[in-house]
Amino acid sequence: MKYTKGKLVGVMFFVFFSLCAANSVSAIGVVSTITVRQSPEGITYDAAKREMFVANYGNNTVSVIATSNNTVVATIPLRASPFGIVYDPGVGKIYVGCSDSKVYVIDDDSNQVIANVTVGLYPFWVAYDSGKGEIFVSNTGSGTVSVISDKNNTVVATVILGLGLQPKALCYDSGKGEIFVPCWEGGGPIKVISDTNNTVVATILLPETASIHEPSAAGYVPDKNEIFVSNADNTVSIISDTNNTVIATLAVGFSPYGFAYDSDKGLMFVAAGQIQVSASEYYDTVQVISVSNNTLIETIAVGMQPKFLAYDPAMGEIFVTNSYVNTVSVISDSASVPNTTPGNNNNNNGGQQNNNNGNSGKKSTPGFELLIVIGAAAFVLFLKRKR
To answer: Could you tell me the residue range of the domain that residue 157 belongs to?
Structure first.
């Protein structure tokens, strides 16, 4: 059988593009890195404006990012260090907990502060209750949770959690109309507040471990009615809201923190801190949990000290604040972006990408591999002619 030049070229291109396809990586990964102000912490998504609001703790500001092009379009000054931040779609306002014992209210049309509400000491975390139109605030220094009505921006209740408890990043369970509040003290606890009467209706104790088991943040999965809780012993506890019991515990990175749930893909993203990939190499990561079977399926290298995350359903992207390097990493939940998993990323600066177009870490077919393809095709042609 003789091969024409046309057939030879066809074989070469077929093998070449097959190799290119095999060499490309199908994995969730970072597609953009955005510089904001000092020490970004909390982040929230404004679905009406398609913007991310980022609390810059070290700069007394809030950065506003347009998710259409991942650029900072506004910077809002505040009077004190902001930390927790949440969007209230019912009134089109952003609520920001700050170090001066106030929650500031930002209008998303003007990007201006229009009100402030005095709460407890160090109100560092906030959550929105869509069922009641209320903002729940963890007052870390007071051991209380303040409840703010978004109708008039006044405190309508103060929930006392217990002596010595330090409430952390709380979350709202829309299925039960309850707020889950992780606290630092002993083996938890996690306090459950009913939004019907603003009282504690349950206390969840985490299993005792050899190391400190302090819960830092909670995230809600409506598909399964489960609460994910990050712990200081490098684990994530998964709690069923049916009976408030721990049903699974996953080992993740170092000191996991905030969560964001991707409802489209059924994935929970957790800022998981550092993992060691070699004797001298560490990466700060976000880890991805499939909620269908509560297993880790992906590890993504991001900037140093990832803290909180927010999901943009319009773009299918997760935004992650990197506190130490003053950036926000943008992760696509698509299966066709470059893989940034440690071990596949040639960047040695803690996973921090320096370009904004997400090309860092992308694999390509080099010239040497092309030579192999051409040589293989020529060899096949030689054998056919010998016959």
So the answer is: 28-363
The string of pLDDT tens digits covering residues 77-102 is 999 999 999 999 999 999 999 999 99
Task: Give a yes or no: residue 67 inside a domain.
Answer: yes
- pLDDT grade, residue 76 (50/70/90)? very high
Number of domains in the chain: 1
Enter the pTM of the model: 0.82
Residue 143 lies in a domain: yes
Contact by Cβ (8 Å): 262, 311: yes
CB count in 10 Å sphere of residue 187: 16
C-alpha–C-alpha distance, residues 124 and 45, integer Å: 18
Q: What is the pLDDT of residues 136-171, one digit of tens each?
A: 999 999 999 999 999 999 999 999 998 889 999 999
pLDDT in tens, 113-143: 999 999 999 999 999 999 999 999 999 999 9
